[in-house]
Specification:
two-stranded antiparallel sheet; flat; 1 helix; alpha+beta; single chain
């Protein structure tokens, strides 16, 4: 979870590691709320689109 938003970090063999980093930047720039919750081995990334 600590590296979830680190650019170029991926757990996938062919992953580029830019997806969640890009999504995070877009959400922050547009004022959307998001949260992370980890219950090993799963991390849930929730985006609140409606206030």
């Amino acid at each position: 979870m600590q590296q979830l938003f680190s650019p170029f970090f991926s757990t996938k063999k062919d992953g580029q590691g830019i997806g969640l980093t890009l999504v995070r930047e877009i959400l922050l720039n547009h004022g959307f709320d998001f949260s992370l919750k980890t219950v090993r081995p799963i991390t849930v990334f929730t985006i609140q689109l409606v206030g």
